[in-house]
């Protein structure tokens, strides 16, 4: 689509929004106000004369005053990677402490990169050149790029405060995931059910199968801290016998208490467990997706986390076998839906 025919970009989805899985994964400084506030939904709020130990409390990102040359930066992982049509740098309520200039860059990094990879080795493309901004204002900047980005880096020259950062664009999925999952076989709304778990000290494992994305850490499953050599696990009876083709392990909001790794196994009836996803390293506060092969149909799955921690959501996308589908349809027609 040529730039002249593109719609006004602010009408497009905010790809960085927290509800879509976006996260501020790194910032070099947020002494006065947390960088995570940048991608909160809604406009920033302000209450005068609300002082904490570090000064006035701001609903935004604010760094300390620089006494040496340099810049302050924050890296945002987009919840939905895609083409960016424009960004909005909102300095609401920052009147004497906003940055005089900003710039924005984008990077396309596949998989689940570490912070070190993003900071030191990622290749960044300029989306918005160093530009002046006004205080207490929604400052829009058009982006003319046809590339797909997974991360954006916001830079303040040299320091200051920004309330919200919106990244408007069109989502572009990785083709590897297209056609790799149709039905979440584990979802509660599809008939999935937790059958057993090792630990539910902080919150119920049923949260793993709830619809939608978790909004806070308490909406996931979290175990107590292990002090032995074991690991925690949960078993799920699927909606029906089927083939799993895409696994999603979402550690959103679990920052210092996410599992270090996880694996998925499956079985049919009382048969032997078979590996679907081998033990795989996980990142905190991240929505992980893995294309898998499940040559044999299963009706039960087991997730092991190593050694403990919290998981927001577990999704097992795939397809029901013909027999399972017919069984479900017969139960619906007969009204005998219980096993």
From TrEMBL:
Enzyme Commission identifier(s): 3.5.3.4
InterPro entries to which the protein is assigned, alphabetical: Allantoicase, Allantoicase_dom, Galactose-bd-like_sf
Pathway assigned to this chain's UniProt record: Nitrogen metabolism; (S)-allantoin degradation; (S)-ureidoglycolate from allantoate (aminidohydrolase route): step 1/1
Keyword Transcription: no
Keyword Nucleotidyltransferase recorded: no
SUPFAM superfamilies in the record: Galactose-binding domain-like
Keywords: Hydrolase, Purine metabolism
Top-rank taxon: Bacteria
Entry protein name: Probable allantoicase
């Amino acid at each position: 689509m040529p730039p002249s025919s593109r719609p006004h970009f602010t009408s497009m989805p905010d790809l960085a929004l927290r509800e879509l899985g976006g996260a501020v994964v790194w910032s070099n400084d947020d002494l006065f106000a947390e960088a995570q506030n940048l991608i909160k939904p809604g406009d920033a709020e302000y209450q005068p004369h609300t002082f904490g130990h570090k000064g006035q409390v701001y609903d935004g990102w604010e760094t300390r005053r620089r006494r040496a040359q340099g810049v302050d930066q924050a890296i945002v992982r987009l919840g939905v990677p895609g083409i960016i049509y424009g960004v909005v740098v909102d300095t609401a309520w920052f009147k004497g402490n906003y940055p005089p200039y900003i710039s924005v860059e984008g990077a396309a990094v596949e998989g689940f990169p570490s912070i070190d990879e993003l900071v030191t080795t990622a290749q960044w493309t300029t989306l918005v050149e160093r530009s002046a901004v006004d205080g207490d204002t929604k400052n829009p900047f058009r982006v003319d790029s046809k590339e797909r980005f997974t991360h954006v880096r916001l830079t303040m020259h040299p320091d200051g405060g920004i309330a919200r950062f919106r990244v408007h664009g069109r989502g572009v999925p990785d083709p590897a995931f297209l056609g790799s999952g149709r039905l979440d076989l584990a979802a509660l709304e599809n008939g999935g059910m937790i059958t057993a778990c090792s630990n539910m000290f902080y919150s119920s494992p049923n949260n793993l199968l709830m619809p939608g994305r978790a909004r806070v850490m308490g909406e996931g499953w979290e175990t107590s801290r292990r002090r032995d050599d074991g690991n925690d696990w949960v078993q799920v009876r699927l909606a029906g016998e089927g083939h799993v083709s895409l696994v999603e392990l979402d550690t959103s909001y679990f920052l210092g208490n996410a599992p270090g790794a996880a694996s998925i196994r499956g079985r049919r009836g009382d048969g032997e467990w078979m590996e679907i996803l081998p033990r795989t390293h996980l990142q905190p506060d991240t929505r992980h997706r893995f294309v898998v092969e499940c040559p044999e149909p299963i009706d039960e799955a087991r997730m092991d986390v190593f050694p403990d921690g919290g998981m927001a959501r577990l999704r097992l996308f795939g397809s029901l076998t013909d027999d399972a589908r017919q069984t479900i349809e017969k139960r619906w027609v007969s009204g005998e839906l219980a096993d």
